[in-house]
Amino acid sequence: MKVVRIPAVLQGSATELPYPDDYFDAVFTDPPYYDNVPYSDLSDFFYVWLKRTIGDLFPELFITPLTPKSQEMVADASKAGGMDQAKQRFEELLTQAFREIRRVLKPDGIAVIVFAHKTTAAWETIIGALLEAGLYLTASWPIHTEMGSRLRAHESAALASSIYMVCRKRTSDEVGDYARVKEELERVLPERLAELWRQGISGADFSMAAIGPAVEVFGRYPRVERLSGEAVSVGELLNLARRITSEFALRRILKDGHLAGVDNVTQVYLLWRWNYGRGLVPFDEAHKLALSVGVDLELLSRQGLIKKNGSYLRLLGPQDRRFTGREASENLIDALQLAAQHWAQGKEQELEELLASLTCPLETFWRVAQAIADRLPEGDKERQLLHGLLGRRNGARLREQRLPYDQ
To answer: Which of 241, 313, 348, 360 has minimal Cβ neighbours within 10 Å of its Cβ?
Structure first.
């Protein structure tokens, strides 16, 4: 006799599941993130109509005039007495929900957590809550899920993929030694990054996909400590993973496997364009990207490479900058952008002199130009300028018809 199992849909709290311990083979969830989406407020739009149409069929679900909000796992400053309190409450509820997942999982069960957020701070919160709850990653996969046409993707450096994290119950209380964890990260992470690269994952999706393999290493431990007994935070471990990822990506972006002649400021420029294109980037995320190659954002600001736009930053291309009254600095990216300006303005002699004065190998100069141009979309002015300049690489002379540089 065939047994038919009918799925059950329950309304309840994720922090207090109505199931016994060790009950489920698998749990699948896509958790909220701080105040990113006001779920219940959005739900009110259709809740009032559903209440009118099917409220008599499910009266227990439509008791309140609008959706209940007091226990919602969203950081709402207006309800919590301030944003700091709202964030703290969110983190506590998220950790509590993950603890419930661990409780109801069978000893050999798996939990799949879906997350699609580009900031390191967001990942610190999610990973910290998972580890605090006694879960650890055993696998992670980037899956293309996000719509580039959605409203929040416009004018921003949005992700195309979500990261699916497969977690299991952590059964060991062993404390991780930082030196050993660091050595394992430096050995294991490049191998996983190479696999992601072969799959064609790039840009911000690549950087986010690299987090999973890193957490698989240090997440086996409830705590990682230095020899002195000092705890190493999740943020520090993620920053280490980011440094390893940045170095790997730069070597692949430049296609020659080494970074000789490419200064740190130019490395930031390459990583920024590769990760975010021309999108606006949150200040904190830009700060961590720069630090991954040892550069402070203040240096980029002084050199006129970034421009503030509210709480976001924009990286400036050659069409956005003016070098009037000063020569390009020792940074390759300054020299490259000035060269693009000379090409666009028909300054053949100045371009020849600039190329002759480069402190880096000429091949490196052209390789960086090609890498940046490859990452920009068709019709982008910086891409057009760089492609024009790259024509010079093959000995092409300046033509009378120029790009409308000053438009």
So the answer is: 348
